[in-house]
Amino acid sequence: MRCLLTASLVFATLAGSVYGHGRDSNSPLPRRKTLGFGPEHPHAVFNSNLHPLQTAGFVSDEPLDVAHHFVTDLLGPSVSGGASWKIRKDSYTDDNTGVTHVYIRQIVNGLEVADGDININIKDGRVLSYGNSFYNGPTPAPFSSTTAPEDLRHPQAEFCDQIPRHMPYAAPMPDGQVLLDAPSQSPVISHIAESNCAHPQLPASLTSDSSDFRPALLQFMLAATPNRELAQDITENYQKHIDDMLISDESHFAPGDEATVQFKVDNVPDAVNPAKARLAYIQLPSKLDGAMELQLVWKFEVEMQDNWYESAVTVSAPHRIISVVDWASDAPVPTPSPERKPATYKVFGWGVNDPECGERSVEKESFDGHASPAGWHAIPHEHDPSYRSVRGQEKPGFWRNTTTTWGNNVLAQENWEGLNRFVDNYRPDGGEDRVFDYRYEPNETDKEDALEEAKAYINATVTQLFYTANLVHDIYYRYGFTEVAGNFQQYNFGRGGQQNDAVITNAQDGSGFNNANFMTPPDGQNGRMRMYLWNTAIPYRDGDLEAGIVIHEFSHGLSTRLTGGPANSGCLGWGESGGMGEGWGDFLATTIRSNRNYSDYSMGAWAANSITGIRHYKYSMDEDVNPSTYKTLDKPGYWGVHAIGEVWAEMLWVVSQGLIKKHGFSDTLFPPAPGPDGVVPRDHHFWRQDKDLLVPRHGNTLMVQLVLNGMKLQPCRPSFFDARDAIIEADRILTGGENVCLLWKGFAKRGLGFDAQVQGRTPWGGGIRTDGYAVHPDCRDEE
Ligand SMILES: *[C@@H]1O[C@H](CO)[C@@H](O)[C@H](O)[C@H]1NC(C)=O
Ligand SMILES: *[C@@H]1O[C@H](CO)[C@@H](O)[C@H](O)[C@H]1NC(C)=O
Ligand SMILES: *[C@@H]1O[C@H](CO)[C@@H](O)[C@H](O)[C@H]1NC(C)=O
Ligand SMILES: *[C@@H]1O[C@H](CO)[C@@H](O)[C@H](O)[C@H]1NC(C)=O
C-alpha cells in the first residue's frame, strides 16, 4: 500500500504544473510529433449476438467455406461489376475458444479498398458475429494513369491550401510540448503555414503524372516531418527531393496475396528505411450528398525516427492526405534451451509496480514453457539480428544460447543515442550462469549529473526491462496472444504466424524524456518499445523500472495486432479506437498490479512524481474519485487518445470489479505451466472444470480473458459500443453467456449502457454523447 500513498508530496506542485497542464519546461528535447486521422465510416456495423436463424443458411465444418458463403449472402447483388473481395491470410482459429477469426478485404477494379474490412467470427460452422465496413456504392471507372489538365497544381500550393482541414490535432509546440486539441488550434499548422507557404514561386518545369507517386509522398513527408529545416528544404528544393527518390518494384511481395504491386522507395527525406507505396481505394463522404464514394489513393508506409506511418494520399493532384495512422503509440503523454539452469535477475518482482511499491529481489527466469519453450535467453541463429553468417564457416547449431538480455521474445539494450540501431548497443552480460545482479542506488546529485547518475545503473535497468517485457510476452501468450494471433517472436516454433518480430526494447532511450512509446507494424516486423527517463525528480526516475508503463506499452502491440487481424496495424489509429488502444494498456497494467485487497490506482505516479499520476483521475470504483462516464468524451480536453483511453480503462475497471465480486480473485494471473510432457494441467484452482473450454475461474483472470477475446472479435476501427459488444460476445462464447447481464450492468454504471448514444462523431473523436444507464432488455428481469 505504501506505493499508493507516499508519492512525494514535496514535488507535487512541480508535478502538478508539469503534468496538469501538459507543460514540460525541463525537457531538453521536443516531444514526439504524431498525426492520426481519417474518415469516419457511418455505414460500418458490428453485428454481435446474431440470431442463429440469420446465419444457419449454410453450415460447414470448414470455417473458410462458411465465411465464403456468408459474405456472398451478406453482400448479395450489391457487389457487382469491378468489385470483389479476398480472405486475408492472417485469418486464424483461436485454440481455446475454437472461434475462427476471418479477415476479408474488399477489392474494386483490382485494387484493395484500404478501409473496406469485414471480420467474421465463426464457430461450429456458424457465424457468431461480424463487422463490416465495405464500400457499397457504385463502382468507379477503372483507374487511368493520366490526370485532367485542370487538376495540375503544385503540391506546395495544395499543401498550403489544405493545412487547416487536414492537419488535425497532435503537433509539437515550439517549446516542445504537444497540444492535443481541435484542429484549428494546432500551432504547428500556423508554423508550417508561415514558414513554408511564404514561397509562392513554383518550379518552372512542373509536370504532374498520377502514376508517379513521388509528389504525393513528398507532400506527406512535408506534413509528417517534425524537422522544420527539412520541411523548408523540401519546399525550396522540391524537384531535387523528387529526383533523389529511387523507386524499385516489389512485386515479389506476398505473391498472389496482394491485390496490387508494391513499390519500394529509397531516399525518402526523414525516413530511416525504404518507404513502401501501393495504389488503393479509400472511402470518403462525397461533397455532394455525403454518400460514401471511393477515392484513389497511394498508401504509404514510412518508418521514421519517431513515427511509423501508414498513410493514404490522393493520387490525383491536388494531393490530399486522407488518413494517417501512426503505428507508434506514446504512453503517458501529459504531458532454448529449457534444460539450462534458469537465469536470475535482481529486479522489482512481478506485481511490484515501481520502486515505491517494494524492494528488489532475486527472481528466476520464470518463463512459461508453453509461451517460451526455449526460455528467454535463446534465439535461433537464423533469426538472430546479430548473427552475421560468414561464408565457408561451418554452420552452428540451430539455437544460440545467449548470456545477455537478448532472446526470442525481447531484444533489450540501452539506447542513449536515441537512434534506430540497436544490435550493437550496450546490454548487460550475465555470464555463463546468467546472473543479472546489478547495483541500483541512484544518489542525490546536481541536475547536471542526473543523466550520468542514471546511466550508472544501466545494467539494472536493462535487466528490469528484459524481465518485465518477457513476463508480459508470456502472460499475454497464455491468454491467447499466440503466434497465429500475431505475437512478437523471432522464431515461432512452427506454430504459425509471421516471425522475426521480437520486441526491440530500448532502455533510457535518448529520443525523449517523460514518456515511452511503442511502434506496432504488421505481424512479421519487429515491434519497438522506447522507454525514457523522467526528469520529474532528482535523481531522475527511470520508466523502465515502472512495470505499469512497460505493460501499457507492450499492450499497444497486443491490441493493435489482435484488432482487425495480425496483418492490419491500421485499426486503432484515432478517435475512440485510438483511445481504447491507450485504455486497454492502462487497464491491463492496473489489473496486473492489483491484489485481493481492493484499492484505487493511478498510472505512472512514480515516474511522473505525482500522486494522481499522468491521467486526470485514479482508476476507482468511487464516482467521487473518478467520475468518468461515456459522456465525458464530449468534454474539452478529451480529443486526444490518452484522455479517451482513460475513460475506457475506467469502464473496464468498473466492469472487472463486478466480475471479481461474483467470481472471486485469483492471486496469480498466470495459468499453470505445462508439465515436461508439454501438457497444460487443467488445474481446477485456475480453470473451471465443467466446460470443454478453459474458462478462468476468478473474476480478474476471466476479465483479462474476455478483454483479449473481445479484441479478436471486434471489427477494425471499433467504437466504444463495438468493443463493449465484443466483450459481451466473448462471454457468450466462453461461458455460454452467464455474465452477460453483469457485464451490461458494469458498462451501464459508467454510461455505456444499452441506451447510450452518440451523434455526429468526427474523425478526431468529437460528437455529442448521451449516457445510457440501462442494461440490455433481456437483462431487465434480473434487476
Ligand atoms: C544451450 O544450452 C543447453 C543447456 O546447457 C545445451 O544443451 C545446448 O547444447 C546449448 N546450445 C548451444 C548451441 O550451445
Ligand atoms: C551512491 O552513494 C553510495 C554511498 O556513497 C556509493 O557507494 C554508490 O556507489 C553511489 N552510487 C552511484 C551510482 O554512484
Ligand atoms: C555493467 O556490468 C558490467 C559487468 O558486470 C560492468 O563491467 C560494468 O561496469 C557495468 N556497467 C555500469 C555502467 O555499471
Ligand atoms: C490484504 O489485507 C490483509 C488484511 O489486512 C493482509 O493480511 C494481507 O496481507 C493483504 N494481502 C495483500 C495481497 O496485500
Description of the structure:
- With 783 residues, this protein is an alpha+beta fold.
- Strands 1, 2, 3, 4, 5 and 6 form a 6-stranded antiparallel sheet that branches. A 6-stranded antiparallel sheet has the order 9-10-11-12-13-14, with helices on one face. Strands 15-23-24-22-20 form a 5-stranded mixed sheet, with helices on one face.
- The two termini are 35 Å apart.
- Mean pLDDT is 81; it is low at 5-30, 145-208, 251-259 and 331-337.
- One 2-acetamido-2-deoxy-beta-D-glucopyranose binds at residues 337, 339-340, 397, 399-401.
Please outline what is shown here.
This protein is α+β, with helices and mostly antiparallel strands.
Q: How many beta-strand elements?
A: 30
Q: Largest beta sheet, briefly?
A: 6 strands, antiparallel
Q: Roughly what fraction of the amino acids lie in strands?
A: 15-25%
Using only C-alpha atoms, the radius of gyration works out to 25 Å
How far is it from the N-terminal to the C-terminal residue, by CA? Answer: 35 Å
CATH architecture of the largest domain: Roll
Domain tally: 4
CATH class placement of the largest domain: Alpha Beta
